[in-house]
From TrEMBL:
This is Acyl-coenzyme A thioesterase THEM4. GO terms for biological process: fatty acid metabolic process. One of its GO terms (molecular function) is hydrolase activity. It is found in: Cell projection, Ruffle membrane; Cytoplasm; Membrane. It is an enzyme of class 3 (hydrolase). It catalyses: decanoyl-CoA + H2O = decanoate + CoA + H(+); tetradecanoyl-CoA + H2O = tetradecanoate + CoA + H(+); dodecanoyl-CoA + H2O = dodecanoate + CoA + H(+); hexadecanoyl-CoA + H2O = hexadecanoate + CoA + H(+).
């Protein structure tokens, strides 16, 4: 059994899998602003008490905008290349629902390298509500999957989640800064054993262990 947490391979270039890559600096500020405005719109629409006339007007405006924006769609699987704070290059799927630069649904969770793994902070609004005032358990799992999957990708090489076990210790609150952590515990060939947790006010609300299977790099 091989046990280590140091990189075991160079990060593969997604282009070698036939995936298009864009640099994060090339995403227009106007698109980032639009993504943020639409994120706010989703939250507002989910909670609005506006009158019927305003709702009908808004639906027509949004329908018109949807038509205008539905041009030159990106290829499915488009990746973003970014330089992390420690200078290393990493890739992520541009519409990743947890972390994607162009996903208006993403909270978004951005992770950075820290001693021992990856760490990010995120505050969830009512888009992610399950029980009243609390994060949906599926979204808690999604945050943890992203954190442990990214830790595995950064510390070893990218892979897919084969198994994810989540322990929900306490309710995860909305509108509260959450600390999300992922780390590699050990590797065994293509198997990467990972773990992570979410904390609110310093207390663990959920923790996960998972098994990632590293993708085979084409020759
Ligand atoms: C390209 C560049 C892009 C860069 C990109 C960067 C992205 C950087 C951030 C990503 C962050 C994303 C975070 C979200 C991650 C998801 O959301 S992934 C999506 C959800 N997961 C899936 O859809 C996976 C579906 N499952 C599968 O495709 C396949 O079962 C798997 C997991 C790929 C494994 O299949 P396989 O490659 O054929 O592997 P296989 O030979 O069967 O097994 C290999 C070993 O693992 C063991 N194993 C496999 N499955 C299991 C299991 N469930 N339980 C226990 N053991 C297992 C086997 O027993 C075997 O063990 P050994 O015999 O070697 O001891």
């Amino acid at each position: 059994m091989t046990v280590h947490t140091q990189p075991v391979a160079e990060a593969p270039d997604p282009r070698s899998f036939g995936l298009p890559v864009v640099e994060d600096g090339s995403i227009p500020a106007e698109l980032r602003s639009l993504v943020s405005r639409v994120h706010d719109l989703i939250d507002v629409v989910a909670n609005t008490g506006a009158d019927r006339e305003t709702l009908a007007e808004a639906a027509a405006v949004v329908e018109d905008l949807t038509g205008r924006l539905d041009v030159d769609r990106r290829q499915i699987g488009t990746m973003v290349e970014r330089t992390m704070s420690d200078g290393t290059t990493e890739y992520g799927t541009i519409t990743n629902i947890v972390s994607g630069d162009t996903s208006p649904v993403a909270p978004p969770l951005f992770l950075e390298r820290v001693p021992g793994g990856l760490r990010g902070e995120v505050t969830l609004n009512t888009i992610y509500q399950g029980p009243p005032g609390l994060a949906h358990g599926g979204w808690v799992a999604a945050l943890l999957d992203q954190a442990v999957g990214s830790a595995s990708a950064v510390e070893t090489s990218p892979g897919l989640t084969a198994k994810l076990e989540v322990n929900y210790r306490r309710p995860t609150p909305l509108f509260t800064p959450l600390e999300v952590i992922g780390r590699v515990d050990r590797t065994e060939g293509r198997k990467v054993f990972v773990s992570g947790e979410i904390r609110a006010h310093g207390e663990v609300t959920a923790e996960a262990t998972a098994l990632m299977i590293r993708v085979q790099i084409p020759e």
